[in-house]
Amino acid sequence: MFSRTIARRRAKEEGEKPFWISYADLMTAMMMLFFIVMAVSLIVITNPGPEQEHEKRVRNLCEEIKRVAEGVKDVTVDCLTNRINFGPQAFFATGRFELSSDTKLKLREVVPLIISVASKNSDSHLLRRVVIEGYASRSGSYLLNLQLSMRRAEEVLCSLFEGSRPNERALTLQEKQVVRDLFLVGGYSFNDAGNKTDQEAQRVEFRLEFHGYRDDAASERSATSPADSDLESFGTCRPRVLG
User: Relative to the CA of 39, which of 76, 86, 151, 213 has its CA 20 to 30 Å away?
Assistant: First the structure.
């Protein structure tokens, strides 16, 4: 009788041992997996891949543009959206595309700062282009606003090539060549008006476009051609009246 009790107890203990051993092994394996994941995560953070390194360089380039533009009133650089906003200085009157003299002065103050970063920064080749985007309010027809918004963007570009006022620094020939090669214009009607008021929607912004990781990062901007040796080669903007 006593021997049978001992035999049953031993059988019970032998039956429980494999379960507790397996549970302990499972916990050990989970701990090992946790340490492996943490180690891999630390390696990725401390040693980013080429794509992450490219994104970091692009972000640093945008931050450099933001830093040099901090001293210009009403100008903000958003490196999340890669946009340069000029605030009320870049608002237009309804149905008009003309810029005030003060706004032209502001633009000719900011653009050289962008060009300086695009020319001197070691990662300047990552800046693909600067798009001057014109917008209009929801008042009026789509096609008329499309033409109006494009004309506003063109007016900004034309103002960069105008003669300067007394005591104002004009763009140099080299800077104008960079503007020609790097800056584009685009009109977007009221597609981006959103919840903005009419006055806020009637504006221009700069959008920074950067080369992607798989783009040809070594693609340099085209060299200046012999025909660009003087200012006359750029021509002038002719005034145009909207119908």
Answer: 213
For residue 120, the 8-state DSSP code is: H
Contact indicator for 224, 119 with CB cutoff of 8 Å:
no
Nearest to 144 by CA among 47, 241, 58: 241
Q: What is the CA radius of gyration of the chain?
A: 31
> Helix, strand, or coil here: 241?
coil
- Tell me the helix, strand and coil percentages in the chain, rounded to 5: 55, 10, 35
In 3D space, the residue among 89, 225, 227 whose CA is nearest the CA of residue 159 turns out to be 89
Contact in structure between 69 and 188 (CB atoms under 8 Å)? no
> Within a 10 A sphere around the Cβ of 30, how many other Cβ atoms?
10
Q: Using alpha carbons only, what angle is made at residue 189 by residues 183 and 193, rounded to the nearest 5 degrees? A: 105
CB 222 within 8 A of CB 181: yes
**111: its two tokens:** 């653009």
Question: pLDDT tens across 121-155, in order?
Answer: 778 788 889 999 988 888 888 888 889 989 999 99
pLDDT per position as a tens digit, 2-15: 455 555 555 555 55
Residue 146 to residue 2: CA distance in whole angstroms: 100
Note the pLDDT tens digit of each residue in 64-86: 999 988 888 888 999 999 999 88
Distance CA 34, CA 32 (A): 5
Query: Residues 158-170: what's their mean pLDDT?
Result: 77
pTM attached to this predicted model: 0.70
The position carrying tokens 């960079």 is: 178
* Nearest Cα to Cα of residue 185 among 231, 147, 223: 147
Is 212 strand, coil or helix? coil
